[in-house]
Amino acid sequence: MIRTRLLLDRDYVVAPLDRRVFGALVEHVGRCVYGGIFEPGHPQADERGLRRDVLALTRELGVSIVRYPGGNFVSGYDWEDGVGPVDQRPVRLDLAWQSTESNRFGTNEFVAWCRAANVEPMLAVNLGTRGAQAAREFVEYCNHPGGSALADRRRGHGMEAPHDIRAWCLGNEMDAPWQIGQKTAAEYGRLARETAHLMRAVSPGIALVACGSSNRDLRGYGRWENEVLEHCFEQVDFLSVHAYFENPHADTQEFLGNIDRLDLQIREVAAIADAVAARRRSPKRVMLAVDEWNIWYKARFGEHARQPGWPRAPRLLEETYNFEDALAAGGALSVLMNHADRVKVACLAQLVNAIGAIRTEPGGGAWRQTIFHPFALAARHARGEVLRPVIDAPVLRGQTHPEMPALVASASHDPATGRTAIFALNRDLRSEQELKIELRGFAPVAAIVESLQLHHADMKATNSADAPGTVAPLPLEAVAVLGATLRVRLRPASWNVLVLSHVPP
Ligand code: AHR
């Protein structure tokens, strides 16, 4: 048994929680779109071909914003191919994933899906094979009310009202060697600046995300962010951060160190953005969009990434998540919340099938992967303001992550409902944790509204079509309350949620 302490003070607020941190990515890759959110003829499909079971799970997941259509796919995509009469849309080769793209699903279908799922659409423009003019035309097609050829083309396609897309990504991973149209930082920075200028001229209120590095291991990491922002600092609102957790040594303790690595990456990118601001004597703060994050290492390479013969909607990137992946996802969500002053958008990559929180079978069922659960619980209960957690916990030692506190935690307080939500990961794989939570400046606890734990004896346990509930939240019973102090027993390797109400003043 180890003893840990979490102090939350009503006056220590990081920032209001931006609901957009509970976003996701839907890319034209594998079976994310075709056979994922869209499967005409499926018994659960509506008249538009949207799978109702996937829509219901998306709502349950609590996703707030969805980035589309990629990912790598967008860097070779002509948005014009995906609008207009379906039977006139061209079939294309998708070079990013070596697949055949039917274009039966495009921007208007995506916006319709977003409205049905009750999520905000976030679109990416192609800065790989296209440029500023195509991006500006895409914005005009989507956002201009009418009276111009492009806006009237949208209306002619049955979309009378503008889509009013607020958030736009200026390309995707433009530093990456695998990216179609990879650019140097100078080339991309200038292109992002020119593209932003034209897009804003059409639709002034939009928020723009410039590409940060594709990952922290690329040689140019840091220098890329610096130089890109030197070119487009004034034009953009966000810089992207991409982070995929890997487990190269099949070592659970090391794997959970990825949580600290994400924390470090966010601090580093924010520091670089602020250095660019400082050189300009600018008070502006470029915010971060962690618009791709997840666990991804089991179905990443070889046949998981490419299949011969240009197949349609092949089974690509179909990572089956296990229990330890859910622990890592839970820890990552705490990191994102704890940076609420800087991270205003984050997208779990991805939503369905391809590294997806939801898995489906063609013509068959849909189920929750293990990582679905921490995301859904955090999205449901984290509300209002994020509190700064002060943590006192023994340190676990790993090779690549030499000092990992055994407790990873985050908390929010919602002045509207008076509820406090606490998310706590016991990263110690062997020892139970007696966690003392001190709530300073809060009224005494009136009731425990929710107390759940995610725990399984087998780190490699997974959910499947036949056993969809193998890894699922269970009641957390060992909670004692004394005024504004709680004592909770956290099982080894467990992710836990507590939601409290307080005695009214
Ligand atoms: O999410 C899968 C891929 O990972 C995306 O297409 C790309 O942006 C990243 O490299």
Bound molecules: alpha-L-arabinofuranose
What's the CATH first level of the largest domain?
Alpha Beta
- Helix residue percentage: 10-25%
Average pLDDT confidence is 97
Rg over CA atoms: 23 Å
Number of distinct beta strands: 26
Q: How would you concisely characterize the structure shown here?
A:
With 505 residues, this protein is α/β, with parallel strands linked by helices. The protein has 10 helices and 26 strands.
Write structural notes for this entry.
This protein has helices spanning 52-61, 107-117, 132-143, 149-156, 185-202, 223-232, 252-256, 258-279, 323-338, 372-381, and strands at 2-9, 13-16, 23-25, 65-68, 92-94, 99-101, 120-125, 167-170, 207-210, 238-245, 287-295, 343-349, 358-360, 366-368, 385-387, 390-392, 395-396, 404-405, 407-414, 419-426, 433-440, 445-454, 474-475, 479-482, 485-490, 494-502. Helix 1 (52-61) links the parallel strand 3 and strand 4 (65-68). Helices cover 24% and strands 27% of the residues. The chain is globular. Helix 3 packs across helix 4, helix 3 runs parallel beside helix 5 (185-202) and helix 9 (323-338) runs parallel beside helix 10. With 505 residues, it is of the alpha/beta class. The longest helix is centred in the middle third of the chain and has 22 residues, at 258-279. The strands form six sheets. Strands 3-4-7-8-9-10-11-12 form an eight-stranded parallel beta barrel, surrounded by six helices. The protein has a seven-stranded antiparallel sheet with strand order 2-15-19-20-26-22-23, with helices on one face. The protein folds into two domains: 2-10 and 386-502, Immunoglobulin-like; 18-265 and 285-332 and 340-381, Alpha-Beta Barrel (TIM Barrel).
